[in-house]
Amino acid sequence: MSSSTPLTRLAERLRQPFRRDGRPTRLHPSSVWAEATSTAALALTPAWEKVRGLWLRYVWPVLSVVSVLGWSVLAASILLWTAGQAFGWQEAKAAAIAAFVLFLIAIGFILGRSSYGVILDLARTRVAVGDSAVGSIAVSNTSARPLLPAALELPVGNATAVFHLPRMKPAQVHEDLFTIPTARRAVIVVGPVRSVRADPLHLLRRQVLWTEPEELFVHPKTVALAGSAAGFIRDLEGMPTTDLSSADVSFHALRDYVPGDDRRHIHWKTTARTNKLMVRQFEETRRAHLAISLSINTDEYASEQEFEMAISAAASIGRQAIREQRELNVLTQKGPLRCETGRNMLDDMTRIAGAPMRRTAVDLARTLADTVPNASVVFFVVGSNVTPSQLRSAAASVPLGVRSLAVRLQIGAAPGRANIADLTVLTLGDLADLAIVLRKAAA
């Protein structure tokens, strides 16, 4: 590992500013400028880092206390005093003094130290859309003296909740409960809890952070696929394979023994009859491997509600596949999702952000065929703006022997099934009908 520092590198650069392989280079203006720029950067970097550290440690904490209104009042007092001095306006001087006195009085409101013990507790960090997300804040006075009434702020996403603390004796604990709305899928950052000291006019505002921020995952709404719909997911094995194996469960034929074959597969009755070693040969079976192609191109959906329903449908199918311990891959235009567990998959589903993009569901289907070549069943989850010809093109990219189904979202449409060549197209108008359309696919 090199032990060089910016200063040693600068010294080396100054000893041989324009040498390469021991020979002087031509002093071209562009070379001179580039060399001067890099040399100046090496010289100024240590000083800049030191100044930046001092700024962040001592200066910025003081300046950040002053609000926009506070800077405006301070600037106004300076301008009024300057104008009063220049033109002899006693009124301007009086206004400047009054503004400056207000600023000085505001300083008294933010002085002092608070000693709190704050515990932010979210009962559940993962909920589904529509479920209640409840949390609590427990504040204790850890100092040896009473604390005056104060306010705590709790950022929740883009909003801020304010909790008013009463006068607290030493070791006294005050607890507040709160509820977070979960009307839509989102990752909500809750916290950090901060105490705020401010003057009545909010010229100065001093805050202290007491906890770390936490993430609340509002998972997409899913439906349970019970009964025959769950059986359909369980029985999806794709087309039977013709590959032969020396060890499986589906017996195919007998063949001559080859050195290296497992002796447990010798068929002794046939061996005794033919007087030569014969072993069983099996037809390789295929374990269900589901691949879900979820288009997040919002141009392919008629509304935001349709897009959210597509995410919920894909999450419901994937969740059932994980429950059945099937291999699962979920792919979007922005890349694959984690599918090791249902929680990982739903977390990544929650982070999905749709946007208009050039890549369509057809492009995603081609990527899926290359990314998951061993899939036995493929689901295309698309919006109502995807045409039958596009679905046909998407199905054409699926290798032979792989069963393909398309779940086409259309708000308010009746559950239906249609076929486009080897592709089964399922129409879904309501998330609650997902089990019905899967039963139609199994019919």
Automatic annotation (TrEMBL):
Residues 254-403 form the DUF58 domain. The chain crosses the membrane at residues 58-82, 94-112. Keywords: Membrane, Transmembrane, Transmembrane helix. It holds the Pfam family DUF58. It comes from the Bacteria. PANTHER family: DUF58 DOMAIN-CONTAINING PROTEIN (PTHR34351:SF2), SLR1927 PROTEIN-RELATED (PTHR34351). This is DUF58 domain-containing protein. It comes from Pseudarthrobacter sulfonivorans.
